[in-house]
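Tutorial, part two.
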Amino acid sequence: MQPLPLRLAAGALLVGGFVLGVAPTPPADPGCRTAFGGGAVGSSVEVRTACSDAVSARQDVVAVLLTAGVAVLGLSVGRSRPSGARGPGPEGRVRPGPRAAGPGARRLRPGNTVPSVSDSAAQPAQQPAQQAGTSDRPTVFVVYGATGDLSRRLVSPAFFELARLGRLPQQWRLVGSGRGEKSHEEFREFLREALEEFGPQPSDGPWEEFSRNLLFAGGGFTADDPGQLLDVLGEARADLGEDTQVVHYLAIPPGAFLDTTKAFAAHGLVEGSRVVYEKPYGTSLETFEELDAEVQRVFDEEQVFRIDHFLAFEAQQDVIHARFANPWLAAVWNSEHVAQVQVDIAETLDVAQRASFYDATGAFLDMIVTHLFQMAATVAMEPPADLGPGALQAARDAALQDFRELDPAEVVLGQFDGYTAIDGVPDDSSTDTLAACRVWVDNDRWRGVPFLLRSGKKMAADEQRVTLVLKEPVDGPYAGQGVEPSTISFSLLEGGAFDVSVTVRRPGVAGGLAQGTATLPLDSFEGTGPDSARPALPYVHLIEHVLTGDRSLFTGVEGLRAAWTCIERFSQDRPTVLPYAAGTWGPAAVDELAAPGQWFLR
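Running the prediction step on this input gives:
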């Protein structure tokens, strides 16, 4: 069968049965995938449906209107400072209706159940309240666990990428801290080998200049014994000056966070510094409170950056910008129009490379209460006062505080067949390699809408998606006819993509309905140059945000407390772990969570 493309001029209006600027186009390549034409607002939108013959555009548009019920008012997608661009990104200043004042607001609720178009930017776009470019202050980065896997794969390559882009301070040093002994030159060679394995390649950037700024402090770092760190820091400060800022980056196991925090205080490394904690920040409400009490005792909150790197995926940031920059999208972002919200992180890999860690943690603690809760809160949050770092973090935290306590009956845990045969996994392990749950957000915008979260290993495909499943028509000729629901979906894989699925009339004498998908790739835009259009990896964003003091991509303490509180009941009454076949979407009970609907990925 050949697809029938419909081409709509950018900004074309579909409302009240009228379509402006619609013209049929000749048949194109087969398939239902397509791309929006160029820039923030493309010159055209092309929708291909799995159809067979030519048919009048008027009939198709009527079907779109009756089934999708969406007004298309143009599309614009924001970028939070692309990797090669200088200055702040194109985010607009959002001034919604009723809201709590200021970035410190604990609750942000809509003024009514059905938000109007005022939910999106009603005023001309302004730059958000954030620093442009990078800090000019001399900075010493201390990476604790510098020879570990996290540092080799993600943290060190991100530093080199920032150097390649010219986004590090003019004067800086990177000090690797570890228990072993290495000379500065040996550490430089260690990082060179890491870049050659994971990229960017040393030959792709200023390696010689970069490597001269690398130092190593062995002997470990504890409250009783700082090892070589104080001496190496003194060396770096002597080179850079007394005004040097220190950034502590804890790329170490979470169990070492508490003792390392105490060591900062013991050795006078707190004043004027910043500290970055990897996830998980605690493993339960009790351990969270214990760790945070010590962190708050030692540091001021403004000094603390708690990572959840999924918040820094560019496609995850696009969820925010697409929602608030496009009135038609903002208008459907509520319980009147949305039947379900789904957050899916699926992997085909097993856990062979990290079996001992994973068996002690499991999918729920590793993914659901951390990454997926934060992603769900990004969807659920109320429009912030602006897109500045304080406001975004506060809006996300407020959404997490609206999460209802998780009911163990609405959680499914699974373990793929063959898991216990992996080296390092006990034969009798009951660790979950898949977790899925139904979360409820008790506020006026989302009351009654299930948020379905799922993550697992050895699943049917590698996918990372945030999807809004829209409601079926409730009036008109298609009401109650079982029309397949329209969807708005963001793919987080690679550079990301924005997909909109709508129902149209099937061409031909027999007629009927067919569903097609329009896709906007988010990894490049025409006319912006090869560097500025190139997506940056999450850790590149995160490290630069630490430099500028921008906390928008980091988790807030109140949101983390709310997340751990939400799962307390579940933690005391975990359901039985169910088996599932490798290469599937999990146990049958997972599908029951989505009833009477179904998972977007299936």
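Residues 181 and 253 are 19 Å apart (CA to CA). In part three we will examine how such features are distributed along the chain.
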